[in-house]
Design goal:
- There is one protein chain.
- By secondary structure, this protein is mostly helical.
- The chain folds into two domains: 3-96, no CATH class; 107-148.
- It is built from eight helices and four strands.
- It has helices at 3-12, 16-26, 69-75, 83-96, 107-111, 113-121, 126-133, 137-159; strands spanning 32-33, 38-39, 50-53, 64-67.
- The strands form two sheets. A two-stranded antiparallel ribbon has the order 1-2.
- Helix 6 (113-121) packs across helix 8 and helix 7 (126-133) crosses helix 8.
């Protein structure tokens, strides 16, 4: 048993009885709503449309329970929320923790930042700069905007 498996076992130990009870209950045909062919919410018995991890995936949790939207929101401490709202909240939380979305700058573009800024200062167009430096116009535009905002911030701090 490796270290990750030991940690997972330690984290799951307090919840073993709850997990066993849930697995027994979910295998009970009474938990399935025959009219809609949906699994019922573990908490209230309505149709479930979310699978909530009993132990967060970040801690190695693999077991899930079915929950309706309302009960899933309660688990997360949020008033009635949809799946898309949960996803948006998760993305906001990840961004607050430093996660970044989108394609990173190509290595060669970041190495040519000074060249791009100096060509723009000389009056070259963004299209012409992108051809000279061999990067996309959007990359040149992004670098120029970033350098302008940094220069503005530096001016503000030097005047204070």
């Amino acid at each position: 048993m490796n270290a990750q498996q030991k940690l997972k076992k330690q984290l799951l130990a307090p919840y073993e009885n709850q997990i066993d009870e849930f697995l027994n209950e979910i295998s009970n045909p009474a938990r399935v709503d025959p009219s809609s062919h949906l699994i019922k919410c573990f908490e209230c018995g309505n149709g479930a449309d979310h699978w909530h991890h009993v132990i967060p995936r970040i801690h190695g949790g693999t077991q899930t329970i079915p929950l309706c939207t309302t009960c899933h929101a309660k688990v997360h401490g949020i008033d009635r929320v949809t799946s898309s709202q949960l996803i948006k909240l998760g993305i906001e939380k990840a961004r607050a923790n430093g996660a970044r979305w989108g394609r990173p700058l190509k290595h060669r573009a970041s190495a040519n930042v000074n060249q791009i800024v100096s060509l723009k200062a000389k009056g070259y167009s963004i299209r012409k700069i992108s051809l000279i430096v061999n990067v996309s116009s959007s990359t040149v535009h992004r670098i120029i905007n970033n350098s302008e905002s940094i220069q503005t911030a530096n001016k503000d701090t030097s005047q204070a």
